[in-house]
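Help!! Second protein's tokens look totally different from the first
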Amino acid sequence: MLDTIDQELVRCLEQDARMTNVALARRLGVSEKTVRTRIARLLGSKAVRLEVVVAEGAGERPSRMLYLVHAEPGHRFEVARSLARRSEVDSVHLSTGAYDLTVLAAFPDDASALEFFVREVEGHPQVRAAQSCHLISEVAADGSPPQTEGDPDVDTEQITAFLLRRPAPGGAEELLDEACRLATEALSADRALASILDPEGEELRSTRARGLSASYVDATISRAKEQRGLPVVQKVIETRQHVLVPDARTDRLMAWAHDLVRDEGYVTFLTLPMLSGERVVGVLSLYLDRPTALSDSYVAAAQALADHLGMAWGRLERTAPPGSGD
């Protein structure tokens, strides 16, 4: 049963879910800590549920947040370690002045960002106070916003020539080399990685890359084994559809590799299923070094290539001699 303060708190949030705790406290005539405690309790009891309706097309951009945290005396290191372990958090910095910590984090949507702030930051027992800043856009050194490029060039003649013939590669490595060549030359990706999955679709069986460092490829394969699959690959397998990540440096789906992404230097990431019938037999991944807005027509061209690669692998599987490693 909600008391008077809880009821008024819920009404305020219904009117404007972005109101700060300070503003809510002023409206209700209570302390900021009381507001923080009551919101956490309401969420925990399921009496309140956060929901954000995202306008069409807006969901492609992650919600990036900066949290300013004031810890209880003597507990800043404890709070820092606790938040740094969260997969949503990109970095935690100890600081001086009004706040003890600054926390940079990324989420798939605003609802997830708000719930994390309430539960994990404000709700931390050793956090005295916190503020949240929604990061809107990055500004370049000359004061202009970073430019998002359009589609990379597509060599339709190369793509068409490949689609019209029935390639009979000698094995997985030859097929994957051809996939990486076409991804970088015909689709103008800066880098490419192509992989064949095992029959159960759980592990990367064979992998070839072009333009990627050996350390990045090795780390990706290693983490795939440790985690028994990568989130982005699992999503491709489950949906049998491509996954486009506009900014792999911050997107939650790439949280397992944020450090690798920053070290490698790419931004936009597109991965597509190689299909043999209804089965995902492999994935083709394209990497772009600048923020790039890929159109439906570009993605369709890339998927047509991936589909043909999947059919070629299916033929190779059917004709491979029993016990063949490929």
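Here's the second one for comparison:
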Amino acid sequence: MTTTANGTSGTRGSTGVTGGAGTAGAAGTAGATGTAGGGAGRGTTAAGRLASLGRAELTLLIRNRTALFVALLLPALGVVGLSSSLEQIDLGKAGMSVAEAAMTSGIGMVLILVVHLNLVSAYVARREELVLKRLRTGEVADREILAGTALPAVGLAFAQCAVLVAGGVVLLDLDAPARPDLLIAGVAVGVVLMAALAAVTAAFTRTVESAQITTMPMFLVSVAGSGLFFPVELMPEKMASICELLPLTGVMTLVRAGWLGGAESGELTGAALTALVWVALSVFAVQRWFRWEPRR
């Protein structure tokens, strides 16, 4: 098999691929994923292939205790930490209470931790164990491989966001979402954006261990500048205008407007355009730079 430097082209007819020994954690059952991918390749529909890849990836996620802890418990712990930090801030100027700010920020934490952080490790592990390379020898399209790998994280993110909304309404006496359609759209765009950015980050990540470092910039920038720990509305005007251009800021604006209401149409349009531009840039970057070959 021959591929270009960015791995977006190459002969897909070759089948002489040998897999390396499985490593601990997410990459430990690479052979199982390869088998599932082979089964997916014999499917007649894209939906069937995606379902097979998703089932294999879900099995790997369940077996990886570290990834499962990050996906299930860290967002909840993050909401608790957010509540403590937000109590020190006067949120009256932003038009929201501590509970409202913490729960909407919790959705942002889910997007970062469950989708972005988890998927960077997953993409790197599958690449280094030659799983992605084996899958490309079948009829599964490149976009199906990436989407199938992301399916469990995406489903888990939607489920946790739903739990946060239900918990906020039932346990914290928050109002029901003012614009459910806008809230769902914001989460959907955020999931797609974080998944695409995860693939971009994976392209520059050499090992699963180094993913803890390469994912840190996205985490810190989003937490500090996209309104998770400190609402953008309370920032100085010049700083706020810069932070509004960050990848997750537009998504958070849509999420908060969908749950809490009160946003103007012009603000929502700008937030939606910013988020969609980041999605388009991320998809282009994946097509240009994503690596299918191990970085050894």
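Reply: Different proteins will give different token patterns, so don't panic. The chain has 13 helices and no strands.
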